[in-house]
UniProtKB/TrEMBL annotation:
Pathway(s) where this gene product acts: Metabolic intermediate biosynthesis; chorismate biosynthesis; chorismate from D-erythrose 4-phosphate and phosphoenolpyruvate: step 2/7
Residue intervals of the 3-dehydroquinate synthase C-terminal domain: 267-414
Protein name, per record: 3-dehydroquinate synthase
NCBIfam families: aroB
Listed cofactors: NAD(+)
Catalysed conversion reaction: 7-phospho-2-dehydro-3-deoxy-D-arabino-heptonate = 3-dehydroquinate + phosphate
UniProt source species: Aureococcus anophagefferens (Harmful bloom alga)
PANTHER family: 3-DEHYDROQUINATE SYNTHASE (PTHR43622), 3-DEHYDROQUINATE SYNTHASE, CHLOROPLASTIC (PTHR43622:SF7)
Catalytic class of the enzyme: lyase
Amino acid sequence: MGAATTRAAGGAPMRAATMRAAVIAALFALPCASLRRAAAPARRLAPRLQSAATAAPACTTVNVELGDRAYPIYIGDGLLTSDATTAASYLQPHVGGSQVLVVTNEVVAGHGYLDATVAALKHGDKGAKLRVETLVLPDNDDEPSEATKTLENLGVITDYAIEKALDRKCTFVALGGGVIGDMVGFAAACYVRGVNFIQIPTTLMAMVDSSVGGKTAVNSRGAKNGVLQFRFNMSAKNMVGAFYQPVAVVADVGSLNTLPERELASGVSEIIKYGLIRDAPFFEWLEREGVEAMLARDRKALIQGVEDSCRNKAEVVALDEKEGGLRATLNLGHTFGHAVETKSGYGTWLHGEAVGIGMSMAAHMSHELGWIDADLKERCIALVEKARVPAFLPLYSPMDVASFEAIMAVDKKVADGALRLILLKGALGNCVFTADYDKDVLKKTLEYYCDDAQRTRDD
């Protein structure tokens, strides 16, 4: 079972009607190598797009196959940012009622994307009948984005919807990066027990990961005198949430024009995991040209990177929507990375930066277990560093072994008291999700990465 793909220029492609085959539950118990993508021809930097200067922006569509909840991911350059007619063709078909709430933050609104979204929703005859409300949440130096992903701000969204008397047929629109998408998706799941929502990711990280698959959540601060604050005085990432799928995702790489270099690199880092866990040809394309081209903001490379990432994720989500096993492999490096984010304080590290360190740690541990060869470990670390994110902790990091152990002990992948990890095993494109590993090797990996000698490593 895979992600069905259709392509069109100008208008919105049709949603897939049904899944092509039944999901077989026994597949979830197999190592992810058994379900990785089949080998594909060498990647092409040039996407399959129309080139006519007068044509509407071309679109590639990856469908997330979930039966009657299937939905399209529209990918292209200018789908939102070119003109209201084009943007309306991707947004309006997914608005069922007459009320829309667009939620964004002050950074995204400041770049004009909120105005473009509202103009698209209000465009034409259908748009004239829509009531569009907007809500702009904070995102600044005093309140960095991840720090705003709280139950309090979730309440701001739902209270605003109540204040505006939005009904069950309304549609929420999440316009922004992963924080906005996660929070608005969770609000949509909760408001009047569930309303439709559309994802419009404006960061590379959100386009290739958080906007796809229906994971919605906020961070929990923990009880004032509770275990979490007692152990590491910080919130628990994404511990309060729901699986709730959008009705559409509109990924316009044109919105990446305004993305800061550091955030662009963070998104490229997240992309690397797909090649490591299940798509060797994709990893080789990233090594050969993809990473450098995306960092240079080459539009064709960005479309290719987003398309291949979304197709990989859509295939996994179609098989294991609620993370019974296979979907957890998409979290390669995240258990280590979330610990780094949490201990350091939200805003210190971008998600992809912390995941870069986490993928390096996972590769190192996999090699120490004898599960991968030294060459693959070094290729992983080298590609992380090529993406311009750290592969090792800096000298100033507060991380130590005790902090890693305390934070990972409450990770969402803990089951029956055992920490399950995603580790590489075998050739490139193979991995396992398991608690069956030598715990001494985990301890030694934490010690190795917390050692000052490794923090200052340049090679």
